[in-house]
Amino acid sequence: MDALVAAGPPADLVSAFTRPVPFAVTTRLMGLDGDGPDHLDERRLRRWTLALLAQGGEPAADHGEALAEFTAFTEELIERRRRAPGPDLVSRLVRAADQDGGIPPDALAFLVLGLTASGNESVTGALGNALAYLLGERPEHWPRLADPGVTEHTAERLLHFIPLGDDEATVRRAAAAVELGGVTIPAGAVVAASLGSANRDPAVHPEGLDADLARPLGAPTLAFSAGPHYCIGAWRVRLEMREALHRLATALPGLRLTVPIDRLDWQLGSTTRSPAALPVSW
Ligand code: HEM
Questions:
Q1: What residues does ligand 1 touch, defined as CB less than 6 Å away?
Q2: Which of 66, 84, 137, 177 would disulfide-bridge 51, Cβ 3.0–4.6 Å?
């Protein structure tokens, strides 16, 4: 953020803020910010992420090659952390998997790969969508984010009401018969539960996104699901969203979009969908 402020306006908040901030957190968390074979640069992670999430329309010609590279990098990384663990999350996951035993190596590799690529991309997407909405639709609210209490509730409301991707349903198989809203779901039935619809249920959340963003949500959000598969990155995206919005609004209270919100270019995808660029000035 210091670099963004020092360079002065105009700027693109995607290349100067919503990509580098989560990337710095991801690489620090996973221990990929040092030198040597573990070093991960932003361009390489971006290529792998586009391949993994099949973002941006047609899969690129080197889709398979990029995925194979990413898998090989992750498997070698796991081996190195097994031999020489550090304080990073990869080392802790490897240790926990080895202590538990019976975790298939490809399941561990897929978790590390997902935490690195999808984790990074989802925070970039959530931040970009939040900034597009705040600067494009709610400019009056922007300077209020200098108050950390306001930012906490604003971040929760934005994560709750703005879906990260296509807002498609989560598919589950009912382990036992259950009655929901007067309907009996038999054991073994496949159920498509839409977390986004639940979050917009007017009986539970009568206020929509247009309400005062400084007010606490009236009921807990389902944006991160519930139960044993509850999102393990929820703490991360909440913390980064709060810190990023609060610090940016404190440093640049006059931040504004330089194009109308309906003229923004978008990076489309089913998992995450967010602005491709956010041209701003202050
Ligand atoms: C706005 C951002 C995010 C949203 C809306 C989100 C949403 C979700 C949802 C709804 C689930 C449950 C899926 C299911 O029930 O099958 C989930 C699971 C998961 N999330 Fe997130 N997530 C976000 C960010 C992150 C981040 C930043 C990370 C990692 C750093 C992460 C890692 C995971 C993992 C590993 C799971 C699987 C958990 C399991 O199956 O036990 N997520 N996420």
A1: 114-115, 119, 122-123, 126, 159, 164, 170, 195, 223-225, 229, 231-233, 236-237
A2: 66
